Amino acid sequence: MAVYTQLEMAELAEALAPLGLGELVSAQGVAAGIENTTYFLTFSPDQHTQIREFVLTISETLSAPDIEFVATVTSYLGRYGAPVPAPVATALGQRVLSIGGKPALIIPKALGRHPEQPTPAQCDAIGRAVAQCHAGMQQAGFAHRSHRGLDWVAATGQRLLGLLTPADQTLLDAELLSLAKFVNTHNQLPCAVIHGDLFRDNALFIGDQLTAIIDFFSAGTGYLMFDLAVIANDWCLRISAVGQAQCLRALTAGYAAVRMPDITEQQLWPDFLAIAALRFWVSRLADRLLADHRPAQQPADKDPNEYRELLLQHRRSPIPWV
């Protein structure tokens, strides 16, 4: 979320009028984030709705069909009972708007805050919720190629090799070979559309109660356990060492309470943790070294070495499924 597309109130009001949300009274650009332009909107409600606050996301990198897929997934998950806000639609059922010449979605603003130092109870809650999302996506049978899936990691990693230090080049080359072998060997593991980017800033809590999972813009078909590994790395292993084991145990227990991974998935858990670390090492390197992988105005301010070190940690000391 960021503000790459600057818009006047009158322009926003005109674009959002078909949604029938009332009079637009404020639009606050959100400076934090990476790939999209985001505004917090407040409306003076009319007789049709009492909801006053919404989040507008304008895609800076994805096409209108990609954003339509995000709308389809989030709408389905909301109906399925997952804590996922569904986009608002016009009277004619249109969910993807064109704002500033770019595709956009607007969703009700959920209550809560992003967890800075997750508790075991919060990790249990997010584990249960993502397992519910996985079950819903398996039932729906959707398929979609993520713009930053594992095939993107493999292709982008090759582009990065010549731009790295010799040590990093050696490490990345070995990891890309390992990734290719993994994908070729384990192509029958459970897959469905996954979130793919469920960091702490893509979930909202009131206390230990999960209120919303947001930002499905990286969603696409992938390994279910890869999705969980992305969460484990950020929620459990990038926090104070004191709480890491408890949070990781709570996350996997919460997930298994809704969807128990099969024995092969459990055995491959250490590999999924390493692959998830590889994915974000490559994406941060790409954002820093390959300008075509981010909006022109986006600062490359996330340190790739954080995930490089986490990758090495997983290779040195594999963490078994508990």
Give the gist of this structure:
This protein has 322 residues and is an alpha+beta fold.
Mean residue pLDDT: 93
Strand order in the sheet with the most strands:
1-2-3-5-4
Helical residue percent band:
40-55%
Radius of gyration: 20 Å
CATH superfamily of the largest domain: Aminoglycoside phosphotransferase (APH), C-terminal lobe
Distance between the first and last residues' Cα? 34 Å
Number of E strands: 9
Number of helices: 10
> Could you say what the CATH topology of the largest domain is called?
Aminoglycoside 3'-phosphotransferase, Chain: A, domain 2
Uncertain runs are: none
Task: Describe what this molecule looks like in 3D.
This protein is α+β, with helices and mostly antiparallel strands and 322 residues long. It folds into two domains: 9-108, Phosphorylase Kinase, domain 1 (2-Layer Sandwich); 120-316, Aminoglycoside phosphotransferase (APH), C-terminal lobe (Aminoglycoside 3'-phosphotransferase, Chain: A, domain 2, Alpha-Beta Complex). It has ten helices and nine strands. It has helices spanning 9-16, 64-80, 120-140, 150-160, 166-185, 224-236, 244-258, 263-267, 269-289, 304-316; strands at 23-29, 36-44, 53-59, 97-99, 102-108, 191-194, 203-206, 209-213, 220-223. It has a five-stranded antiparallel beta sheet, with helices on both faces. A two-stranded antiparallel ribbon has the order 6-9. A hairpin with an 8-residue loop joins β2 (36-44) and β3 (53-59).
